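Incident review: delayed structure delivery

Summary: a single-chain prediction request sat in the queue longer than the usual turnaround. Root cause was a stuck worker, restarted by the on-call engineer. No data loss occurred. The affected request and its eventual output are reproduced below so the record is complete for anyone auditing the incident later.

Affected input:
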Amino acid sequence: MTRPFRFSIQAFSSPTRKEWVELAHKVEASGFSALHVADHYLGPGTMIEGTGHRVQAMALIPAMTAAAMVTSTLRIGSRMAVVSYHLPTILTKEMATIDVLSEGRLEVGLGAGWLEREYEALGIPFESPGKRIQLLRETTEFMIQAFAAEGELDYRGEFVQSHGYTAVPATVQRPHPPIMIGGGAPKVLRLAGELADIVSVNFNNSSGVVGAGSIASSTAEETHKKIEWIREGAGDRFDSLELETATYFISVEGRSQITPEAVMTRTGMDLTTLQAFPHAAVGSVDQICEELQRRREEYGFSAITVGDAHLEAFLPIVERLAGT
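Output delivered after worker restart:
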């Protein structure tokens, strides 16, 4: 089954109320399906230097809530709520509340976490990948069961334990809002295939930083491996999944201030390789549209997320492909 394209903006900037509200209104009016908020807490300083990650201005839950309250059709998503940063029972209630306040426009993105220096700065133990992924599994299972339950829920996991929990408010979306799980390594993508409704295919950032290894983990060959890991976890439900990915390296001819040469320098790729790279969108509007259609056919990617800095540049692509 070929799913129609939909596009989302992931927000990092907009540090004031006025800017945040204006961004939400603009995303909604521009044909994007969703506004995603990441879950990062490092401000400028020594801890974020060298990680390859940018500063996120607004905190996840209040930013999602505010966006939900000033829009009426835009879907509001977390990309991704890091399960190590939140008590699962509390996060479940917070997400249910946002689904109610948005009147059923929530998308719950969950991740195992990877930015090691952020854990250090926040004073949260950076557990082994296996433990973080197990916490992700239990948080997802608990959330799905709690959203669907009509009474008390008992959940007994290794890390998540809750007795007599009754999930209120009831979510508008039944049996639960769409769950998105993202990552780039075998265990997390198999888990996503097993439990999620939307699977976000990303870099393998197991090194704890964004760098050359992240790019090397996302070549065409490696991306095909990721799709197979998802398929292994999903089994018969694979065709029901929506596959999402982000375009991090963008240069739209005639619209972007960033040149293809600058992106080539940053990534170390030649132009031909860059244009086919699963996390890039470089070239004319026609070229990028054709390439996104090719990737949908090759990998199944129909949900595309771009950073808020590229909203204007990406508009003609959204206008042409959204819903097709």
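Verification: The first helix runs from residue 17 to 29.
Action items: add queue-age alerting; document worker restart procedure.
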